């Protein structure tokens, strides 16, 4: 539409239309204004929708009992208050520490076992019944058992994060190694590469896109793992704050860790995505071939 | 050369030896051996440790039998499954409707997308305490948690399925003067079905997790409550029974959804081959 309109004006300007033609143009109304359509202004729709929901929440939230529902400005106040007290940072740091330890252990063990199971059939057949069984078990169901074994402290949280993150990495590494072309390995052998070289120079790089996809899944699962574990033990960390504020019916404070966790999830997953593009940039080419 | 000469030559060259028996040709043998060795070691080791912390296979079998006879297992399983089914059913209906709307209307997409993204980015477990505060500890909170866990995979997959419907199919429908309703139900929905089913498969697993989380927290009825209860009174063998039931439930539901996917969305593979 826009294209035709500009075309019409340029025609009129440069080709010096005669009166009849100009009249015809006016009659078929080519130069008319485009009618307003909402679909041309989707970003406004998005902004209006967000503003509308937030202000409705604010208005409605102020009317209901603050024990049940909070409202945006109260949450903002609670955020500032919690950040000022230093309590929030301490708990967040504690959670992140446990998260990092558990996730690194899951990555190390998952990649190692995935490589071994992918490379050696005996290992695959010996281990795969357990791997598949544990992978199918909802990990949350293991939380009470892990609490029984490891107590309410840091070690049980690390164990839960570990178990949450382990299987995505293990399964993806495993299928990545299995998809490595036998030709690559044969060529390595022909040039006298030892088993160690075959692992580090052929298997791991070829499986890396799969491993990275597994890591991305694992980060999300581990985050859920740490929250659930902390909600259960309810002693320290973000999950404990969630339980504490909800038990105290401090709804405004409750939303602070929720928002923090949502942001953390977004940041972590986009970070892993960037890392994936950097470490395994050949994935797209592979797919295109 | 005659066949007899061939045979003779093969004999002379010593080519007729039997293929050597290799353990790698019998993966299930290795698997079975692995499981049996594991169970025996578990039994031996488990009997030696404190029964409060650990248990062993025969004790689990006995516990299973006891729970089965008393009817407790069947009762709690039924309670759990009905919460799972209600929550999942609600998320399926609402997810597909909203997903189709978002996939077909750019206006609906723009209006809903920011909220959906924000809620999807939030780890859903973190909202469980809030739901408990609002809905109490009963059946309603379980349904709500299952709904929350299962809703987003279905919604997001349906929306991207409805968005990816080939425009030429919709145009053909329009050219034959199909009313919008028919375009939605006869063209868009079937074309999006493989996506929807993939979402359903993810959602079932997550719904199961939601069910367990809700029951662990409310700890009144259902399998999750049994888990929590037996954990607190150190009945480890009974806890293992529940864990195994939940694992089997997970495997069963995933297989069922895969079978359903194959049955309902048979054209997926063909489509993929064409592209």
Average pLDDT reading of chain B? 86
Summarize the amount of helix of chain B as a percent range. Answer: over 70%
Kindly report how far apart the N and C termini of chain B lie: 51 Å
Number of helices of chain B: 12
Q: List low-confidence stretches of chain A.
A: 1-5, 284-289
Task: Give an overview of the whole structure.
Chain A is mostly helical and 289 residues long. In chain A, 81% of the residues lie in helices and 0% in strands. In chain A, helix 5 (87-119) runs antiparallel to helix 6 (121-136), helix 7 (143-150) crosses helix 8 (154-178) and helix 11 (238-247) packs antiparallel against helix 12 (251-279). With 275 residues, chain B is mainly alpha-helical. Chain B has twelve helices and no strands. In chain B, helix 8 crosses helix 9 (180-218). The longest helix of chain B has 39 residues, at 180-218. The radius of gyration of chain B is 27 Å and the shape is flat. Chain B starts with a helix and ends with a helix. Mean pLDDT of chain B is 86; it is low at 269-275. The chains are: A mainly alpha (289), B mainly alpha (275).
């Amino acid at each position: 539409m826009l294209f035709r309109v500009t075309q019409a004006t340029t025609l009129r300007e440069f080709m010096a239309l005669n009166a009849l033609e100009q009249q015809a143009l006016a009659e078929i109304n080519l130069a008319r204004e485009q009618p307003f359509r909402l679909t041309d202004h989707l970003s406004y729709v998005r902004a209006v929708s967000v503003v509308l929901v937030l202000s409705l929440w604010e208005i409605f939230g102020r009317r209901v009992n603050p024990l049940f529902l909070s409202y945006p400005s109260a949450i903002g106040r609670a955020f500032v208050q919690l950040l000022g007290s230093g309590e929030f940072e301490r708990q967040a740091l504690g959670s992140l520490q446990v998260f990092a330890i558990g996730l690194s252990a899951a990555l190390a063990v998952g990649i190692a076992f995935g490589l071994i199971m992918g490379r050696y059939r005996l290992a695959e057949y010996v281990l795969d019944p357990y791997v598949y069984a544990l992978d199918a078990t909802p990990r949350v169901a293991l939380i009470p058992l892990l609490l029984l074994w490891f107590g309410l402290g840091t070690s049980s949280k690390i164990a839960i994060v570990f178990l949450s993150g382990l299987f995505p990495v293990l399964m993806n590494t495993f299928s990545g190694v299995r998809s490595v072309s036998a030709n690559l390995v044969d060529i390595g052998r022909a040039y006298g590469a030892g088993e160690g070289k075959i692992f580090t120079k052929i298997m791991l790089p070829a499986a890396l896109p799969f491993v990275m996809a597994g890591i991305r899944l694992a980060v999300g699962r581990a985050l859920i793992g740490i929250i659930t574990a902390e909600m259960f033990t309810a002693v320290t960390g973000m999950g404990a704050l969630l339980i504490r504020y909800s038990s105290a019916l401090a709804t405004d404070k409750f939303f602070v860790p929720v928002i923090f966790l949502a942001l953390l999830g977004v940041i972590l997953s986009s970070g892993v995505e960037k890392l994936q593009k950097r470490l395994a940039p050949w994935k797209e080419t592979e797919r295109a071939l | 050369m005659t066949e007899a000469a061939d045979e003779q030559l093969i004999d002379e060259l010593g080519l007729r030896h039997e293929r050597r028996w290799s353990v790698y040709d019998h993966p299930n043998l290795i698997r079975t051996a692995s499981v049996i060795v594991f169970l025996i070691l578990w039994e031996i080791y488990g009997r030696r440790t404190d029964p409060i912390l650990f248990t062993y296979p025969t004790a689990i079998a006995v516990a299973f039998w006891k729970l089965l006879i008393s009817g407790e297992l069947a009762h709690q399983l039924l309670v759990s499954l009905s919460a799972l089914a209600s929550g999942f059913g609600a998320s399926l209906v609402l997810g597909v409707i909203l997903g189709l709307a978002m996939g077909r209307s750019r206006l609906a997409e723009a209006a809903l997308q920011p909220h959906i993204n924000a809620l999807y980015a939030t780890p859903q477990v973190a909202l469980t305490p809030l739901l408990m505060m609002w809905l109490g500890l009963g059946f309603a909170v379980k349904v709500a948690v299952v709904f929350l866990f299962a809703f987003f995979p279905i919604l997001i997959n349906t929306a991207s399925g409805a968005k990816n419907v080939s425009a030429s199919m919709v145009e053909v429908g329009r050219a034959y003067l199909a009313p919008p309703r028919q375009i939605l139900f006869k063209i868009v929905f079937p074309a999006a079905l493989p996506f929807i089913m993939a979402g359903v498969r993810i959602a079932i697993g997550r719904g199961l997790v939601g069910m367990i989380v809700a029951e662990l927290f409310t700890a009144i009825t259902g399998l999750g409550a049994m888990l929590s209860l037996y954990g607190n009174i150190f009945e480890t063998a009974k806890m293992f029974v529940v864990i195994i039931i939940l694992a089997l439930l997970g495997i069963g539901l995933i297989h069922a959804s895969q079978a359903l996917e194959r049955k309902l969305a048979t054209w997926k593979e063909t489509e993929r081959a064409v592209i």
